[in-house]
Amino acid sequence: MILHAVERVLQTILVLLVISFVAFMLIATLGDPLGVLLPPDATMAERNALIARLSLDQPLMQRFLSFLGGIVQGDFGLSYRTQEEVGGMILERLPATAELAIASLVITILIAIPAGILCGVRPKALVSRVIMFVSIAGITLPNFVVGILLIAVFSVQLGWLPSFGRGQTVSIGGLETGLLTWSGWRAIILPAITLAAFQMTFVIRMLRTQLMEVGQSEHIRFARARGLSEARIWFVYAIRNALLPTVTMLGLQLGNIIAFSVVTESVFAWPGLGSLFLQSVQAADIPVIAIYLIFVGAVYMLINLAVELSYPLIDPRLKRRGA
């Protein structure tokens, strides 16, 4: 088990190195940092100082190693658009995206898992049929359509919730959060539901399919033959087997929420990483785009690693096999 964990960690590091190299090549080959960062009347001394700071006078591989060293030390370069430290820009926007992702994941877990269990245990019940019918809309409707519909109903027609912004925020340790204010909670509801809508449909349908398959397996039939109650069969034996792919799906969905929150953040004017990425694409701000790609890749890989290493905790049989 320990060797497997070490192997997965090494694979994660290797993939992150590949992603970092692709991001570095974007910075190295696209755009003109000197033309963007220097004023038109810049002196030769200022030009040479910037070349030295950006390591543009070094060979490509040495520049890549310097780039990696800077990332490890927290130096992510300068934004072409604002001439600010990219690390500071990412850190400023990260709490908003993290809050939105966590709120969306919590909504997904609280709604999708009970609904998926119900649909899997009682697939022919009326409630299950209604849930599966509604889930079709969650798959077919794009996020921005769901967001616009929610704004039209709950913001424009009913006036219950704000249609844009993050609400009032407070600073804790230099990071801004809206989860400690009433307006912050009201502001996060609609974008969190919008992001969760698409994720919930996948979790419901996957958990339903897994439970229906497990319900027909041999060990479940044997449990019924022993006279065990249906509640014990489903909630002790069946759900454990269905949880592994569901946990994997939830982990990947969290990565999707962070990576593909661009549209939702644009619809609700949410000041997170998605809106920063969209602004950077529009302005061809290559350093910010590259660091965003590295960040998203790191999130995906670390979540995938954490999910895979958590499997033995969910099903101890995997630990015994790995041993």
Task: Explain this structure.
The protein has 323 residues and is mostly helical. The chain folds into two domains: 2-72, no CATH class; 89-284, Orthogonal Bundle (MetI-like fold). It is 76% helix and 2% strand. It has 14 helices and two strands. The protein has helices at 2-29, 33-37, 44-53, 60-72, 86-121, 126-140, 143-157, 182-215, 218-225, 230-259, 262-267, 273-282, 286-314, 316-322; strands spanning 170-172, 175-177. A two-stranded antiparallel ribbon has the order 1-2. Helix 6 (126-140) packs across helix 8. It is globular, with a radius of gyration of 24 Å. The model has no long low-confidence stretch (mean pLDDT 78).
Topology:
Elements: H1 2-29, H2 33-37, H3 44-53, H4 60-72, H5 86-121, H6 126-140, H7 143-157, E1 170-172, E2 175-177, H8 182-215, H9 218-225, H10 230-259, H11 262-267, H12 273-282, H13 286-314, H14 316-322
Antiparallel strand pairs: 1-2
Helix pairs in contact: 1-4, 1-13, 5-6, 5-8, 5-10, 6-8, 7-8, 8-10, 10-13, 12-13, 13-14
How is the biggest beta sheet arranged?
A: 2 strands, antiparallel
Reading off the top of the CATH hierarchy, the class of the largest domain is best stated as Mainly Alpha
Mean pLDDT: 78
What Rg do the Cα atoms give?
24 Å
Give the fraction of residues assigned to helices: over 70%
> Which fold name corresponds to the CATH topology of the largest domain?
MetI-like fold
Distance between the termini: 5 Å
Instruction: Count the domains.
Output: 2
Which architecture of the largest domain does the CATH hierarchy give at level 2? Orthogonal Bundle
Secondary-structure-derived class: mainly alpha
Q: What is the helix/strand order? A: HHHHHHHEEHHHHHHH
Q: Which strand order do you get reading across the main beta sheet?
A: 1-2
Q: Write down how many β-strands occur, each being a DSSP E stretch of 2 or more residues.
A: 2
Q: Which regions are unreliable across 5 or more consecutive residues at pLDDT < 50?
A: none
Shape designation: globular
